[in-house]
Fold this protein.
Amino acid sequence: MRVANHLVRAAILAAIASLVADVVQSRTGQLATLLPSALAATETPAAPAPAGDPVSGQQFYQSCMGCHSLDENDVGPKHRGVVGRKAGIVPGYAYSAALKGSGIVWTPAMLDRWLQGPQKLVPGVKMYFTVANPKTRADIIAYLAKQH
Ligand code: HEC
């Protein structure tokens, strides 16, 4: 009787163990299918541009001054009032045909793209200078936005 009891208990325990294993397996299966979609839902399509600081932007603008200034055309066109302006319209500056005909308006977002690669944004332009750091670009653009 004692032995039989033992056997019954062992059989019940084995049944429970396999049941638990089944549940765990199906749950982890569910988790595995749930997880990727949960992760995808938290992904944002593109990182928002960082907020620009015009004061440090003025420092970074030094790197533009090899070719630009606010009030004089130089290697590049003068910059005062550039944010919000159409591209290629500063009087007395000899733009490339590419930039002149681009139809671009210099919004902050467009300037951000320009500074990542002028050639990529408008093939055929004659500015060969890029700013790799997103925060630095935002600072420069914030500075330019204040130079009306
Ligand atoms: C090595 C020279 C050089 C440097 C440095 C340079 N640029 Fe330029 N930039 C140019 C030239 C040349 C053009 C004219 C491009 C054309 O006509 O195709 C230009 C054009 C531009 C324009 C278009 C303006 C308009 O009137 O349409 C903007 C905006 C501009 N540059 C921003 C900058 C900023 C901001 C920096 C610094 C982060 C900078 N550039 C650094 C040479 C330079």
Summary: The radius of gyration is 31 Å. Helices lie at 2-42, 54-60, 97-100, 108-116, 118-121, 134-145.
